[in-house]
Fold this protein.
Amino acid sequence: MFAMTREELTPSQIVNELDRFIIGQTEAKRCVAVALRNRFRRQQLDEDLQEEIIPKNIIMIGPTGVGKTELARRLARLVNAPFVKVEATKFTEVGYIGRDVESMIRDLVETAVRIVQNDRMMEVKDRATKNANDRLVDLIAPLPKKKSKSTNPLGFLFQAAPAQEETSTGSESEEESFAERMQRAREEQRKVRERLLNGELEEQMVEVEVEERKPPIGDLFSGQGMEEMGINLQDMLGNLMPPKKKKRRVPVKEARTIMEQEEAQKLIDMDAVTSEALKKAEQLGIIFLDEIDKIAGKDYHGSGPDVSREGVQRDILPIVEGSTVVTKYGSVKTDHILFIAAGAFHMTKPSDLIPELQGRFPIRVELNSLTEENFKQILTEPNNALIKQYKSLLETEGVKLTFTDEAIEEIAKTACLLNQEMENIGARRLHTIMEKVLEDLSFDLPNQIDSQEVTVDRDYVQSKLHKVVKDKDLSKYIL
């Protein structure tokens, strides 16, 4: 999916793009499309009014596997916005109890920096490639170096003897010899450059210097307090402990990639990247809070609220309401970050959240369970449809895989049946069924398949799934 321009960013166009990857859930698509469009509308206003308009956060309600996460992820990719998925239950772990909720903002900023840096590196890619090729030419065919004249370090004590005539003549001949060697070397470099650009030297081994990677110092003896303050020990000691370099022998194609990265880093301004990334995180960032229902319930072992769950809600609340979080790149205001929460809400309901948090998620949309018809569409229609994926995988082995309509119907029917009789895991059920159907075929490739064309029909599907569907106890473990 490509990043859309502002002119194309209409709600209907957003829904059309989401339809390419996600089946059904029209109401949820319309909801997120409007939220995204409102961001563009807000940016057209005066700065004073911009500050007053806060995003309308969304709660998605629906069983697992119906497309909640995929909707949020595709939405962010659509506009190249920083996106972070966070499991709300992460903050209920022993020893945490909501302490580290600000980490989601730091992760969002890291993502924003990576996005902006990649964009800047793509802008200078041609110049970086040219500079990398120049370095490769110098590496493969180095120019001769002129011998430095020996100097007397104690020259102030001893006066050098006057040069003889033959020494002068010898010096001139050396100059002529060096000029000839330089001319030959430049001619050699010209030939190497031609071969390099024609791709004839891609496999030739060269020796390059790369930075030696070591575990970050902060990972060795950093504490929770430092993380909360956004202090990066590696950055603090970076100037005192410059990175060491080591030599590696790699093919030219790999050396070019390494050098392109280094040259691109030299060409971009990291201060400008950081400044833009902070703004991008604040104005376009999307945080997906999954499993919000797991922190919404009451304590079933007593009469009072669960301290851990309610504590996490109260720690998340300031982030969602709008606060300032310190990161190693600078301070980030969370007022205009879009939060999309999601949960199945089987045992709880959104009203079980604390009232303050409920008020920060004014838009609630329910996603429907997938039907047999939805499963058929998921298998065939999206750009990343499962059947398209498996066909492409087996084509690499020289096998043309074909599914009949009856086979697709049988797979969809089986997925729907198993979701009804066991845990409803939505579209993820299709992954396990497809793996079971094609397990033998994938294992036997490439040696034991005689035909270059394989057709999967209803009988083939039933023969692979018959035992699993019939034996429900076994299917619990396999599917």
In short: The first helix runs from residue 11 to 19.
